[in-house]
Amino acid sequence: MNRKWMSALIGLIIVAGCAIGFSKYMQSVQTDVTTMQIWKPVTMIQSGQLITSNMVKKVSIPTVQHMDNALLDKNQIIGKRALIPIGETEEFLSWKLGDDTLYPTGDEEYIGFKIDFVGAVNNMVRRGDKVAAWVEYTQPKVLNGNGEEISEVQQAALLAANPMVTFKKIYTKQLIPNLTVAYVKDAEGNEIADATSNGPLSLGSSSQKDEENAERYRQNATGQPAYITFIMSPAEYEVFAAGAKDGTIRLGLPNSMNIIGTVTKVESKVGDQQAKDQTVPVTKIDTNISITPDKKNVPANAQTNSGTESKEGVSK
Predict the structure, then answer these.
(1) What separation in angstroms does the CA of 137 have from each of 55, 286, 311?
(2) Which of 3, 116, 152, 236 is deepest in the core (most CB within 10 A)?
(3) Per-domain residue ranges for the chain?
(4) Section 285-302 average pLDDT
(5) Mean pLDDT lowest for which of 184-193, 233-242, 256-265, 305-314?
(6) DSSP bridge partners of 98
(7) What DSSP assignment string belongs to 223-282?
(8) Hey, which bits of the chain come out as E strands?
(9) What is the rounded average pLDDT of the residues 116-129?
(10) Cα–chain-centroid distance for residue 34?
(11) pTM for the full model?
């Protein structure tokens, strides 16, 4: 009798265990197949790009794959700027997005110029970049032994007094170390951006396309640059225009993979640079100089740039 009860009890335990196990399995399957709607990039978004509505798409994913800090409201994504590259397999995590701060503050203004392929660092400059403005002097600056700039007359007088005297020549000078690029547009007014692989150019998976786009970063553009707009203070513009009279303006592009999206004021740096060079006379800005500022606080879709094009750099 006891053996029968033991067998029945063991059988009951086995049946109960199977029922509980099957229930747990069904719960896990139900969790896996439960989906939700999220937002992902249509294609890779590079750092510094302003996110617009045509750059995002709604997709369904299993709920368990959703990341807690990913944004679900499209309005919290559109109008933001990518601080780092965001691949098309990724969700829009809050820490990867920043506010679009590419607007003048204080006494700053939008100032636009014409530019060509070479002047835009071989078409590598994009909206949101920080560039260094250099001047390549038409005639090199001559410095005496004390590091002071001297004229040709002074140079001749020193040579007459001492034929063995030597001089230092300066061919270039950095004018503004961190100049904010507000817009780079083609002749039709379209913003220049990276040309990414999408569709027939890449038949691989989304992750493979992300890898391909990362490798092609800044190698292909959507158009040819014709206009560039900077955010400049009066002090920066004065230094920029004075340099343009002395030679050709060149733009230097540092590591553009750095986090982008915050406009930093560089007026103090310009002041420091002027203080260091206070022994060098600064040419006053000629009212006929062909660098024409845009109107202050002009919206992106209504901005007009002007200036005179230079074959090898930003117009003088």
Answers:
(1) 43, 18, 15
(2) 236
(3) 109-187+224-302
(4) 38
(5) 305-314
(6) 81
(7) S---EEEEEE-HHHHHHHHHHHHHEEEEEE---TTS--------HHHHHHHHHHTTTSPP
(8) 35-41, 56-62, 81-82, 97-98, 109-114, 130-143, 168-185, 227-232, 247-252
(9) 91
(10) 38
(11) 0.57
